[in-house]
Amino acid sequence: MYHKVRAEVGVGSLLTTRILERGETPKRKARTARLEVRAQRMEVKPPHERSHLPSVTMNVVLVEEVGGPGDGTDVSWLLPTRLPIGTVEEVSKVIDYYAARWAVEVFNRMWKTGCRVEEIQLETQARLKNCLAMYAIVAWRVSYLTYLNRTCPRLPCTVVFEEGEWKSVWLVVAKRPLPKKPPELAEMMRLLTQLGGYNNRAGEAPAGPQPLWIGLRRMADFSLAWQAFGSKQ
Q1: Most buried of 27, 46, 99, 189 (most Cβ within 10 A)?
Q2: How does DSSP assign the chain, residue by residue?
Q3: What is the pTM of this model?
Q4: Domain ranges across the chain
Q5: 19-33, 40-54, 101-115, 215-229 — which is least confidently predicted?
């Protein structure tokens, strides 16, 4: 008798529970999710119409949220894997890898779409590698700033921005005299993402990476002008 993979692993014994902090996105509010974890090694048979194919043996990890909001954002992950699942530590590693997938996808999007690395045309392999490495740093910085803005919004902006960067953006966007002390990171990021086309309406979640990377490109020009021409501010 055939059983579906999810149903089979779902009736298995509970391996462990864990807590996962879920950040705010346009589709959900930030929350702490309590997860139940099950894992099983099982043999998966081919479908009837392809019965000539061999069975496949795989490790499967099932992660389900307990007491979630029930709004379609509850955690429910079925993770086939070749990684070992013999211990709680090994299963936790599988979950950690999967939980990091979105950050990896965002980085790749910035690297490919924002930096347009697929369009680079250079004469030698060495030059191409150097260019890709430089743009990887750019993509990392955008990811890092997006993360800091959502987790540590009250940091002083001088932690990540030079004087010429935040002051020039402040004067261009805020159109007010410079404050006596540097603004918080969240305020600076609101100004910066406005340069990238973000509306920053009241109640909206912090901006994502796309308006940020556009704003950073414009900020670079303002900063160069600040350094070249100086300011009496």
Answers
A1: 189
A2: ----HHHHHHTSPP-EEEEEEE--BTTB--EEEEEEEEEEEEEEPPPGGGTTSPPEEEEEEEEEEES---SS---EEEEEESS--SSHHHHHHHHHHHHTHHHHHHHHHIIIIIS-GGG---SSHHHHHHHHHHHHHHHHHHHHHHHHHHH-TTSBGGGTS-HHHHHHHIIIII-SPPPSSPPBHHHHHHHHHHHTT----TTPPPP-HHHHHHHHHHHHHHHHHHHHH----
A3: 0.69
A4: 5-99, 104-229
A5: 19-33
